[in-house]
TrEMBL record:
Signal peptide: none annotated. One of its GO terms (molecular function) is kinase activity. This is PTS sorbose transporter subunit IIC. It comes from Tetragenococcus osmophilus. InterPro entries: PTS_IIB_sorbose-sp (IPR004720), PTS_IIB_sorbose-sp_sf (IPR036667). Gene3D superfamilies: Phosphotransferase system, sorbose subfamily IIB component.
Amino acid sequence: MIKLVRIDYRLLHGQVVFAWSKALGITRTIVVNDEAATDDFKKMSLNLSKPSGMKLNIFTVDETIKKMPKIEQLSDNIMLIFGNTGETLKFCEAYSKIEEINYGGLPNKEGAEQYSNAIHLVPSEVEDSKNSRT
């Protein structure tokens, strides 16, 4: 069962690993990020970041979309983590069952508006976010 969908450019880090995982009883984390899924060093780093006992998958957006029927059948409590709003939108357009998206760190950048201490969105990210809500 999907318990949390989160956007966080840091992907897997302390707050995600310990706070969210513990609070929601997460047993499997699926990192959905094209860059991480195709970079062996990033995959290794992410695997080192997960707590022992937690299952971790790292897929591209397209792989995740394709695997969703199987993912839905898993008995795990699942957290999906996306690295950016664009990949989240692509996923949500293909998989319409996401009702809520949790925003983690999205760094400050030129042209971004600050929405909280850790969330800064440029206009295209705001549009992605609006369109991700089906």
